[in-house]
Amino acid sequence: MTVYLDHAATTPLRPEALEAMLPFLTEHFGNPSGSHAVSRAARTAVDEARDVVAECLGCQPGEVIFTGTGTEADNLAIAGVVARRAGRVVCTAIEHHAVLHTVQALRGDVVPVHPTGRVDLDALAAALGPDVSVVSVMLANNEIGVIQSLAEVTAVVVEHAPEAVVHTDAVQALPWLDVATAAAGADLVAVSAHKFGGPKGVGALVARSGVRLAPILHGGGQERDRRSGTHNVAGIVGMAAAMRATVAERELSVARVGARRDRLADALVAALPGTVETGDRAEKVAGSCHLRFGGIESEALLVLLDDAGVCASAGSACASGAMEPSHVLAAIGVGRAEARSSVRFSLGATTTDDEVDLAVKVVVEAVAHLREG
Fold it and tell me: Is this structure's pTM higher than 0.90?
């Protein structure tokens, strides 16, 4: 049996998403930019999906921009504002590379976080000023799961940089948090379908009314001239179906997955002395279980786990398998050697008790083997 504990990297496709997508992969193949009946049917499907996404994210349909990925949504949000109005960009040190690298490319400023992973609001305030155009703070971290208080962030921005817009990468948040409420104060909100049971290759950006974006893709002028390119109709329809199902089940799923996360973490910490859990569970999303196993290298552990059928990771799945020390762990004060002993187990709605029990058995045996060797 394969035990999949890498839901933060990607999730299995929900049956609701597959069912919704199939007609648009077969008989309903039209390009929604056309004017004839086949195209109009595709356009109707995109419009209906836009309504669903807007309802789930707490915005108006016209504020939803469909993109190819969450990374593209983040880039469009940050670079699109700067291209339109110039100004300086500020983000936190634990952002996903889609944000961090964009900010660095724009010569922006990176502010520190506390050892808990929460942004240092005093440092944020000190970095702000009238020249700042975008402040980017992720809602939930992709590696350690810490949740930011965007209400507090927004209050600081309003006080010290009232002309700036707030962007949040909510890619990891949607399965676990009511994004419509948690990100209500953000001007720009990015999500990605494959993190909540939708297909890969489709995302969305909420751009609140009044936020002006310059496009980063030029072409046919789709998405109200904000994101050119033929719509991925099947992907968009699948994302909407997965989002609607996820939001409907979220409360029960959070309780169930959180209990299994606790069971996994408690068992491993108890069985393996020298194992440290990263972060306070009360401040993390329910599916996040990040552990540091003293005395071992995570790369070697992951190989053993993979051989035994347990899928986990050392951090972000966007690092192409590279085992570089985590910038997130460095930002919260974890030393380089300790960081290299860390493993991210991320649970999802499909994780079972049997999978948790098997994972505990495999991890305990693998760590013991490495420590003995």
Answer: yes
